[in-house]
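Quick one: structure tokens for this chain, please?
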Amino acid sequence: MDYTKLATEGFNHKTSEIDLIDTEQILQLIHDEDCHVAPAVGLVLPEVARAVNLAVKGIRAGGRLIYAGAGTSGRLGVLDASECPPTFGTPPGLVVGLIAGGDRALREPIEGAEDSEELGAEDIDSLSTGKHDTVVGVTASGNAPYVLGAVRRAKERGAATVALCNALPSTVAEAAHIAIVPVVGSEVIMGSTRMKAGTADKMVLNMLSTAVMIKLGKVYKNLMVDLAASNKKLRDRAVRIIMHAVDVSREEAEEALRLSGGELKPALLILLCGCSKETAVSLLRQEPNVRRAHQAFLDSQKNPAESREAAIWTM
């Protein structure tokens, strides 16, 4: 691979004297370059949408969303995966982050690990990756062998594959079913892809996982209704979410949360439907989306005879 042809490895003439200027001028140059990131991401939204739809389809069939990356790219994938359980109440294995060199590479540079396609393939095999999984290979250059090995092996095993990179030509983009390539140009410091490329990839990963969770029914209005209220801050957030969602007092929200056993979605339906916890849980078992579960309850109240008949036929 001729890395001199990659945008991520290019020399940035606009910042060539950054070591001679004062602090505020340095920061202004960095900011000016960062302003190119969001427009570049905006150009690839159709590809991100395709990846979201693939992942949602796979997860609904029992699959997972798996990120595989090296260096900064790997750390960003692991970060996004690790944020999903507290934010959206996902089980730990639903969104998985793989990084070349393993967990130690999160804190220490293990640069040589990214040069092995075999390690990428082995990590995919270790997860028993299958046809319902979606594997996203993240590599700023688009050519990290570890990521290429992971994407190729995932494809061989029948998984949907996505490449997220910041330069073309890209061997990983060519290997994947979908290529998301926000090209942000040369970095402020040549080759330091933790900067613009990393920012672009963080934005895409945020969009990807958040949109997936929205479509899976883990958001009501713009509220994270599947969060795990595992600490004082999150318990308070759960109460405030109920207050915003249903327009009730703090006391009413706390009581609904108590009646639901601390589960946010059932608490919402207890208030929205005026029903018991058991009814709320039953509604959510059939339809995890709060809006649709609420509408199903309202429909059942309008046509109780039809609802009873439908229930008999589905038993």
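The first strand starts at residue 65 and ends at 69.
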